[in-house]
Amino acid sequence: MAVAFNAASQTSRWGSGSSNQIIISHTVAGANTYMFVGISTNQAVTPTSVTYNGDALALVASKTDTDYDIWVYGMVAPDDGTHDVTVTLSGATMFIHGQALSYTGVDQTDPIGDTSTNANTSGSPTQSVDTETANSWIVDFLTISTDGASVSPLDGQTERQKTALGIIFAAYDQATTSAGTYDSDYDLTSGEWTIVSSELKEAGGAAATYISAPLNII
User: Fold this and answer.
1) Of 161, 175, 128, 167, which is closest to residue 149 (Cα–Cα)?
2) How far is 13 from 76, CA to CA, in rounded Å?
3) How many Cβ atoms sit within 10 Å of the Cβ of residue 53?
4) pLDDT 10s digits, 162-197
5) What is the bridge-based pairing of β-strands 167-175 and 158-165?
6) Is this prediction's pTM over 0.90?
7) Are the C-beta atoms of 60 and 129 separated by less than 8 Å?
């Protein structure tokens, strides 16, 4: 069963309403599902728990030694329907972005393959992922310090959603074919950047079905 994009949702708080939680309403539908939740901030707080409909997600990967940190959490078989993602932080902040992405056709036993992270204070985001299985997808969460910067994918990635509020926080994905090394590079006009990439394995042997969907931009 081939991997396919299901849905994207997001929430942001930037400059008002300090709290130690953010809530993202997200809808999941389909078979063999998997959900990512990406979190980014430039503040000295960290996630202490991430849940969906009360069930805990597990940390997949993170990059936290920069001024613009990213954490990526994941869950196999999230509950169908519309439910809340609740991100609880170590302290209150007015500066936080959260995004949820869900997919169908994902391996339910061993969904995540290679993960990779990178960051720099200048230049353009560059990343490579060594996929473990054929027909995997690569899912990127990307933070840029300048909300007016222009960023464009260079390796066929599809932008699923982007917030440009204080900083840019965006999610992209791309389908792969055979196992091997794949680039996730971007052209960026200015700003510091952080990227976290994860391989998402398919639940069968069919070629990946790449579905384009409307962007969810705020």
Assistant:
1) 167
2) 27
3) 16
4) 999 999 999 999 999 999 999 999 999 999 999 999
5) antiparallel
6) yes
7) no
